[in-house]
């Protein structure tokens, strides 16, 4: 019995020895994140980036540090570096969906449209975010990917119908009807003028729907 108690006590001591450094590191990382935010508020981006980086050295799983560092990089005009920070964050914390959404916008700004669209679609699926779907539909439209744009608006129509949002459902229904016409008339050899007229009509519908 005495030996069992000693074994339990020893196990508890070992567990505390393992947990304590992690808790201390997390606490120190949080303090560095706090300092970094203060530097940001003072427009001291270089110091803020340094503190966020130090926080990540202590705690590589600090979501606040990853997101803060990427934001600072963007403000410094280092768009490609911000994309790398978001990518590293998602490698460490795959569930950090906000990093995926922000990386999507950074990738779009970098001209990496296909990757941006993949990221934003994944984020919308994870979060059920209709605003992200609207952005995705707009991106598909800018890239001329009309069938993909139509698929997204059909999702938005279904979502609005489920939510009982009549205004959003009406807008989505108009967009779906217009996009169906565009997709059906996409062959310029068969109806080039009709296709152009339809695209102009679609632009007017989109403008009214916003």
Task: Sum up the structure in keywords.
210 residues; mainly alpha; Serine Threonine Protein Phosphatase 5, Tetratricopeptide repeat; 2 domains; 0% strand; disordered N terminus
Description:
There is one protein chain. This protein is mostly helical and 210 residues long. The chain has two domains: 116 residues, Tetratricopeptide repeat domain (Serine Threonine Protein Phosphatase 5, Tetratricopeptide repeat, Alpha Horseshoe); 82 residues. 84% of the residues lie in helices and 0% in strands. The protein has ten helices and no strands. Helix 8 packs antiparallel against helix 9. The chain starts with a helix and ends with a helix. The N terminus is likely disordered.
Short description:
This protein is mainly alpha-helical and 210 residues long. The chain is built from ten helices and no strands. The chain has two domains: 12-127, Alpha Horseshoe (Serine Threonine Protein Phosphatase 5, Tetratricopeptide repeat), CATH 1.25.40; 129-210.
- For the record, the count of structural domains works out to 2
What is the string of SSEs from the N terminus onward?
Answer: HHHHHHHHHH
Topology, number of strands? 0
Overall mean pLDDT stands at 84
